[in-house]
Every structure is written in structure tokens, then in C-alpha cells.
Design brief:
Number of domains: 3
Number of helices: 16
CATH topology of the largest domain: Rossmann fold
Strand order of the largest sheet: 2-1-6-5-4-3
Helix content: 25-40%
Shape: elongated
Largest sheet: 6 strands, antiparallel
Mean pLDDT: 84
Structural class: alpha/beta
Low-confidence stretches: 89-95, 350-354
Length: 413
Amino acid sequence: MQVAIIEIDNNQLLVAYNDVAKALFSDYVLVLNQPFDYQKIFNLDNTINIDEQDNTIIVLNSQYFLLQRVIGSSKTLFILQSIDYLKKRLSKIKVVGEHAFDIFATQSLVMQKLIAQAKAFSMQREPLLISGETGTGKDLLANACHQYSPRGDQAFLALNCAAMPDEVVESELYGHAAGAYPGAIENKKGFFEQANGGSVLLDGIDEMSFQMQTKLLRFINDGYFRRVGDDNEVYVDVRIICATKVDLAELVEQGKFRKDLYYRLNVLSLNLPSLQERKEDIALLVHIFVNEFANKQGITPPRIDHNVIDYLTHYSWPGNVRQLKNILYSALAQLTLPILTVKDIVLPTSTTSQLSWVSNIENKTLDEMTKQFEKEILLKLYGQFPSSRKLAKRLGVSHTAIANKLREYGIGR
């Protein structure tokens, strides 16, 4: 059994029903335009109310059903679902939900703590605020939180608010009535209606205008909104997830973000660590991305030279995991040998993506800092000059000195 739907008007006359309802009830019960005594038919004198949303457990033909009543201005909708059917459905959802966070391959303690926190927050109804640098996977985390939550079988929709005009944001989120805009011939449901019962991700919430922030705040507070060009209010049950790459608290101080909306959104917050903060995951991610690329291309994964991991670990990764994946894919697409080496990998050399030794000098002696800097320079140049003689010529020192340094740091073995 799927879902039985029965609709009556304010006079309690039956106006519509679907095939599932027809199979559930006998013909004499379902007669269009005739009185439908739902109190008697659903045996509502002997039921169990399970919440404040007109959800009730009833018994029909010796079977338990969940009865949901949705009351409108002129009609009332009854939705019946078999408890046995719901159990089977929920068991499938649970299997998917339990693996929702498997997409985050990690060995780092900081990520493991974040995932544990995200799982706990997923079970709540309050808005969720996800922050993190570009490329850390904010959209993936939002989707995982949705899949893991009790809403996991419902819709998950995402809207990128960045550089989007107000009228587009408003229409996409709230929908519009026919005639609201030139060319708006039909009513259109917005994301909030389409995702009723599920979740909506607002990516780049920091770039939403004050006008749209005000309207969003009203919606978050009570769940009611109006479509553009429509006077009728609509209620939906949607969880709001917001993502940002900037510090909203700073924007509030600068007067660029509504303080009341910030405090309404910042009930449950998750901060995704940068790749710089979880460098112990780089080796794992490299192997995953290399195998992923090989599987897509239908080829045997190349062997990864041991210097590759060391080389990539000493880079600062301003673009985080996304940048790591893109650089590896670029290298693999041009690979001609069955091994991936340092010389196959091209890292940006801009001032925003320098080697990371300067940020890792805390509590180190001058000798330790010198060795760290020396190792990173050799790692970087060895990709371009992959022999001790070539590298020695480039640096203007003896071949023996460079060979000893490469041996000391385990480079090129």
C-alpha cells in the first residue's frame, strides 16, 4: 500500500479520493458529493493522538494506519498510510541515513569530531549554519545532514544566493502566482513548497540582501509565507540550512547582515576545517581521488610515488579538498606512465598559495625551521629537476651536497 488520500469540503461532502483509498474502503463509503462522516468511518473515538499536528493512529480492517489531517480554508485532506508500510520505508531510510557521512573520508580527529557533532545536529528541527572556506565541502555536509535526519526521505533543494537578484531569489524560494510577473502564466511553487517536509540549503547566505533577509526571518519564525503576487498564506515544514564562507558575526558588526537573523540562524553551527587543519587526511584523499579517476576512465590506477604525498602535504591548499581533487585530476589526465610522481603535479605559485612552512613554525628551533624550509624547497624543485645533478645545477651547489640532502629528507627514493 502507498498513500490513501480523501478530500472533503466544509460541508463534509466527499469531493475527491485516489485509487488507494478506493481499494481500502468499500463503494458505499466513498460516494462523491455525499456526506463523509469521518469521525465514524475512521473510528476517531478510539484513537491515539501522537502529536499536535493532527496526526493520529487509527485501526481499519484490523490494521494500524497513520491518519494525517490537513485543514484548508475550504477543504480538508485526510492522508492515510499503513504503519507496516511506514516501518518498511523507514528501515530503508535508516540504512541510507547511517551511511550519509561516509562521503567524508577522514582520519583526522578534528573531522571526526565535526561529523559526530553534525550527526547530533541533524536530528534537530532548528536552522543549521555551516561555515567553511571555499572547497571544504559545505554543500556535501548539508546534504549529509539532511540524509541522516528524520527528513532524509523528503526533498533536499539548494539555492546559491550569491550575486542573484532579489526578484529571482524571491521567486525561487517562495514561488509566484499567475500574473505576478510578465510571462508568469501559471502558479509556480517555490523551493520551500517543493521541499515541504524536507530541507532547503541557502548557500552564500552572506550575500542575501537585507530585504530578502527580512522575509526569510519571518518565514523561519512561523513557517508561513506568501507567493509573490498572492494574498494567501502558505504553511510548510522545512528545515533551513545555511552555508557561508565568511564570518557572519563580522558582517553583523559591519552592519552588512541582520543581527536578528544571524542569531536566529546561529542556533546550531558547524565549522568545516580547512585542508590545512586536517593534513593527515591528504594521503587518504589522494588515494581515493586517484582510484576514483581511474574507475571513471576504466583504467588501472597508477602507482603513487611516495614523494607525492610529502610534496602535497607541504602545500597550503587555499582551495582545500576541491583544489586537491582538481590538481590530481589534471595530473592524471596527462599521465603517460603507470606511476604518478611529483613532476606530474603542477601547483599554483601565486602569493596566496605559498609553501606552508611559515605557518608551522610554532615551538620550533631555528635549526628545525631551517631544515623544514630546506626540505620544502627541495620537494618543490625536485618535481621540475628530478635528478640530483639537475637540481644541484639549478641551486648552484655540488652534486654531492644535493645528493646528501635528498637522502637525508627521503626525497626521490
